[in-house]
Write a structure and sequence with these properties.
This protein has 393 residues and is of the alpha/beta class. It has twelve helices and 16 strands. α1 crosses α11, α8 runs parallel beside α9 and α11 crosses α12. α9 links the parallel β9 and β10. The radius of gyration is 20 Å and the shape is globular.
């Protein structure tokens, strides 16, 4: 029995959680059609969760514990510690794509208490640390010729986005090319992007990071920015465009914008085959992040259960996961570090990182081209190259 705390009724997080649920269902159906796990079918237990509520987060996990699940697969919760704490007494394997160093730092500080908690993707700090590296790569291509080397960060107030902003500012200080031009605060929900767009135009930085997380609000930003753009700026939208509703809502206004995810479905032969299979099962716009993360988690757990032979031996299963990396749709998931967090590739020396692609989870950068997300970086994995945005001269 695999438990999923999934946002079904809250105003936020539904798209990512639906992706996560769909990827889990697809893996479950494949496994059960092939005979199950050790001859037994895989069953899902799904409970509702409000990602922003500590009380709801804890309650959702306790509900799964009451159902005596053999493992928990979670997309993310903005207040992860109450959820983690609610799982401690049961201590079944708890695999999540929470992307949050505050959570994995708790694992590092309390290794016995949280020995069963694993984060299968790198933390959000890498969005900040790696941003100047990616900008340099885009500049070196010669397609984007920045008007200046300024970076303007537009930051949301939730802890996740604040951590990204701080990491980016730190990374800017440690290199010689780019400089911080300005920091502008926004507050969810953003009802009107007009003042933000005016501030972007006023600052006039060569690169702009919109450090936010809501796909629908990103779509609104694209429309308002395109109406009065900052010429020649490279505009990066942090993660949110991965959610299917972004392309559905933004439509042609999304053309030229870039975004990234620290874990996603690749565009290689395996990744493209999965995309085809997924869209046949779940028609419509496909998310490229949690669809793959969820699928990888199920097969990772299957391997662990089969290796130990008994899904109720929680400690043994967790010990196996800790020392046995998993090569999945999203890369090489190696959790054998003090954070129990997937190693990131490529990065500039910040923990937790991998020295080479085959030993880590690659951060994938996309650009919207012809109303599709096209992988442009890392070069080793790219589908296409960066193309001029409509507002570039």
């Amino acid at each position: 029995v695999l438990g999923l705390p999934t946002s079904q009724t809250a105003a936020h997080g539904v798209a990512d959680d639906q992706d996560h649920l769909n990827g889990t269902i697809l893996a479950m159906e494949e496994i059960n059609a092939a005979g199950g796990i050790m001859g037994r079918p895989l069953k899902l237990e799904v409970v509702d969760v409000d990602k922003l509520s500590p009380e709801a987060a804890g309650s959702s996990i306790r509900a799964l514990v009451d159902k005596k699940v053999h493992a928990i697969s979670n997309a993310f919760i903005f207040v992860p510690i109450p959820a983690m704490d609610a799982s401690v007494k049961w201590a079944c394997p708890y695999l999540q794509g929470n992307t949050m160093r505050a959570a994995t730092e708790q694992v590092r500080q309390n290794p016995e208490k949280y020995s069963h908690i694993f984060q299968v993707d790198p933390s959000e700090v890498h969005y900040g640390y790696h941003f100047p590296i990616w900008l340099q790569a885009m500049k070196d291509q010669g397609v984007w010729e920045p008007t200046n080397n300024g970076i303007h960060i537009v930051q949301e107030q939730v802890a996740y986005n604040q951590t990204i902003s701080r990491a980016c500012q730190e990374a800017i200080k440690q290199q010689d090319t780019f400089e911080l031009a300005a920091v502008t605060d926004i507050q969810y929900p953003v009802q009107n992007w007009g003042p933000v767009v005016e501030q972007i135009r006023k600052v006039g930085a060569g690169a702009v990071m919109i450090d936010h997380w809501v796909a629908a609000e990103f779509a609104a930003f694209c429309k308002q920015f395109r109406a009065k753009p900052l010429k020649n700026s490279l505009v990066y939208l942090q993660y949110g465009p991965s959610q299917p509703e972004f392309l559905d809502l933004a439509r042609g206004a999304a053309e030229g914008f870039c975004w990234s995810t620290v874990m996603g479905v690749h565009a290689d032969e395996q990744g493209m085959a999965y995309r085809k299979k997924y869209q046949e099962r779940f028609p419509g716009t496909m998310g490229l992040c949690y669809t793959g993360i969820a699928y990888d988690i199920v097969y990772y757990l299957k391997a662990a259960w089969e290796a130990i032979g008994d899904p109720m031996k929680f400690k043994e299963v967790c010990d196996w996961i800790r020392v046995n990396p998993w090569d999945g749709l999203c890369g090489h998931i190696d959790l054998n570090n003090e954070f129990q967090e997937a190693a990131h590739w490529p990065d500039n020396g910040y923990p937790v990182r991998a020295a080479e692609q085959s030993k880590g989870v690659p951060q994938l950068y996309f650009q919207v081209q012809e109303r599709e997300h096209r992988l442009i970086y890392p070069y080793e994995l790219k589908e296409v190259s960066l193309q001029p945005a409509p507002w570039w001269t």
